[in-house]
């Protein structure tokens, strides 16, 4: 068992989520192979075509997760199988999205399915997709006591 590869892949996926939530697009891009494929879809977006290539994936995320969208992802239960310079992994995840411009709160959970490839400078995600267990949405207008007390991307006055 290649324990170093397992740890490297765990750190890669954690970096994927951290850089996504913090909108660190260059660092997020570095988690993918140049020819990566991403399959993302939600009830909000509907079924989407596969995003082909790192630039398409990063472009989609940076457009959809503008400063009016706050996200946090928590990943857990990794199951990773390494076979030489390739690997497959499954990750449980939970996500929370606050769409400040639309006054909406979205919560969900599911399982990612990833394929990884070891490149000259380390492991990268070659393909990623997920299956939702649930996704819920509520209007923050329906929760009059809701207050967003901190927002990293809010315009400071």
UniProtKB/TrEMBL annotation:
Domain of life the protein comes from: Bacteria
Domain SnoaL-like: 3-127
Family annotation (Pfam families): SnoaL_4 (PF13577)
Record-given protein name: Nuclear transport factor 2 family protein
Annotated source species: Aeromicrobium ginsengisoli
């Amino acid at each position: 068992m290649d324990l170093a590869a397992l740890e490297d892949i765990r750190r890669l996926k954690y970096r994927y989520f951290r850089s996504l939530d913090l909108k660190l697009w260059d660092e997020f891009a570095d988690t993918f192979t140049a020819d990566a494929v991403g399959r993302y879809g939600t009830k909000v977006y509907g079924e989407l075509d596969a995003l082909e290539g790192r630039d398409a994936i990063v472009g989609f995320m940076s457009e959809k997760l503008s400063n009016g969208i706050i996200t946090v992802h928590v990943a857990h239960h990794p199951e990773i199988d390494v076979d030489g310079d390739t690997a497959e992994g499954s990750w449980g995840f939970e996500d929370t999205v606050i769409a400040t411009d639309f006054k909406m709160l979205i919560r969900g959970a599911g399982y990612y399915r990833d394929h990884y490839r070891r490149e000259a400078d380390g492991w990268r995600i070659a393909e990623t997709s997920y299956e939702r267990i649930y996704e819920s949405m509520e209007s923050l207008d329906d929760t009059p006591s809701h207050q967003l007390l901190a927002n990293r991307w809010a315009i400071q006055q």
